[in-house]
UniProtKB/TrEMBL annotation:
Protein name: Uncharacterized protein
GO cellular component: mitochondrial outer membrane
Biased composition (Polar residues): 53-65
Pfam families membership: Tom5 (PF10642)
Species in which this protein is naturally found: Penicillium nalgiovense
Cellular localization per UniProt: Mitochondrion outer membrane
């Protein structure tokens, strides 16, 4: 790590690494949030369809009696 003959990292390289790491974290968080929204949307659609089916079945039972 501190062996002689190794190059020292410049401040510009450190700053570039920090920026890249920050962007990576932001992209991971954004990706996770989008997956959450997608999952919620799919669940909502399935739930809505099942409720519509239940409502139509109740209407059919009501009209039969």
């Amino acid at each position: 790590m501190f062996a002689p003959g190794q190059e020292q990292i410049s401040k510009e390289e450190i700053k570039a690494g920090e920026i890249e790491a920050s962007q990576t974290v932001q992209m991971a968080i954004a990706g996770g949030f989008l997956l959450y929204l997608c999952k919620s949307s799919i669940w909502s659609t399935k739930h809505r369809k099942s409720r519509q089916l239940e409502t139509s079945q109740r209407r059919a039972q009501w009209t039969e009696s």
